[in-house]
Every structure is written in structure tokens, then in C-alpha cells.
Amino acid sequence: MSMNVFRLCGDMSHVFSILVLLLRLRVAKNAQGISVRTHELFLLVFVTRYLDLFTTFYSIYNSVMKVLYIVSTASIIYTIRFQEPIKSTYDKAQDTFLHWRFAVAPCMLVAAVTQFFTSGSGGFDLLELLWTFSIYLEAVAILPQLIVLQRYGEVENLTGNYIFFMGAYRALYILNWIYRAHTEKGYQHHWIVYACGVLQTLLYVDFFYYYFKSKKKGGKFKLPTTTK
Length: 228
Fold this sequence. Notes:
Distance between the termini: 44 Å
Radius of gyration: 18 Å
Oligomer: single chain
């Protein structure tokens, strides 16, 4: 994969979002407002997408980033689910999105249908199926976290920054695709990736609006609340 300023900034934004969340957990020792289910979805995204770690070497940078995403996301899940006193602050009652039923299962079904109609005479390819599944799942993986934030209403500063950098990562990757399409000869377009990337970015639009609004006013970051 070709490197450019948009991809690099996107990767760094993604890494920074993870560091901000880990900092929040370690310093505040509080998981209130954090969705473990979102991170379980992201871990599944990374594990199914990066199976090529065992088959193809692209670069040291590429391999290190893939391992970093998997290990850091697993660490976040372990910290919230099993480490005290953080575990006691995690509010399961607010993190109730049925992610296996309404995210994982539908995305696997759509990936299987996509594989069926695009495989042609190439036959079934498990790695391709899992890669496609990861693209669909990443598009909706943030949903449990956004739902939790709306239920709480008021968003803690570091949590807000974490979500912002996650959204910025995806928006920067869209710019990366546009840049590569205009500068690389023979650049291969992935329309499913584009569609899912745009959908994922759109899910952040409401959050971005209230995030920048709170920064401009200098007050507490609040989202419109939903009924608990």
C-alpha cells in the first residue's frame, strides 16, 4: 500500500485515539461511558482483516501497525472486563447494543452474498470472505459506543477526544483514497471499501457537530440524550 500524508495522518490519528483511551483508563481508572462492545467489534475487524500477517509481508511499518491495533484493542477489552477498579466502573446496563446479532451476523451474511456474486469462476476464498466481512463490520463497529455516549449525554473530555480521533482517522483515509486515485497509475478501486468508509464517517457527523460546538463554547461536551 502506497504511503502519503493522508494515510500517515490517518494512521497516526488512529494510534492517538487508542493512546488517549488507554491514558483515560490508566489515569482515571474509570470506564464509565466506554463501550466494550465497540472494541470487541474492532478486535474482530482487525483479526479477520490482518490474517495476511501470516501469508504476505508488505513492510515493517505495515506489520507493526497491524499487530499494534490487535494487541492494543485486546488490551482495552481485558482492562475494562477484568482489571479492578476499572471493571467496577464499567456500566453494562448502558452498553446493551446486541452486537453479535445486529452487527456481526448481518455483516457476515452480506459478506457471504458479496463473495458469491463477485467470486466468479475463482471459487470460494475464506481469506477474501473474512476481509470483506471486516470491511462491512468496521463501518458499523462504532455504533455501540455512540449509543452509550447518547445515553449518558455528558461526554468526558478524554472520551470525546478518543472518539474524535477515531472519526478523523476514517475521514483522512477517504482523502487518502482520493489522493491515490488521482496520483497512482493503475490504482485499483474498491467500491465496497469506499461505500463502507463513507458510511462509517457519516456515523460520526452528529458527534463532530456537538464536539466542535462544545470546543467553540468552551463548556462541557454534551450530546442529546436518548431514553435509558
